[in-house]
Structures
1.
Amino acid sequence: MEVIHKLINQKILAEYARAQQAMLQEVAREAAEQATNGETFGSSGAEPLLTPQELAGQLNVPPSWVYEQSRQGKLPTHRVGRYLRFRLSEVLAIQRERQGERN
């Protein structure tokens, strides 16, 4: 009887491991697909995060300006580990707010 229980438990664990592996493969496939589309993982079509160099190109300013504004807290900044990232829409919204304050 004990042997039967061990076999059943092994079969259950093996099935669970297969299901978990299939789920992880699906998550990895989705993450890779999103990365090739310039999206962040789990963003599901959300606006991509830009590097400081990409943001500088979009704003037609030097990357050093982007770094300095981020350091001073004047740009909405997302940290991905040790890397800085930006959403263009957030940066443009802040710029519009500041333009409105000046006028």
2.
Amino acid sequence: MCMQRTSAGFGYADVENEVACRPSTVMRVASLSKPLTAFAVAKLWEDGKLDLDKSIKDYVPEFPEKTYDGKQVRENGCHRREACCAILDSND
């Protein structure tokens, strides 16, 4: 079986000037990665494959040392550690 690779661009790279997207057009993902990451973390936690209170280095040993306090998965999933962790802790 022979598989053919195709690519195309859809929509506009620049709506105002009606510049069409091409396969090589780079698009910004903006804040889309945050909810996708949160969903993946929640699913892994739900399946028992991720402990929110373990160090990130337990899962990714090459993760660089940071100078800020808090390296647990639970804490790094939050923009504002205190608010997010209070919500997560209330569900324990």
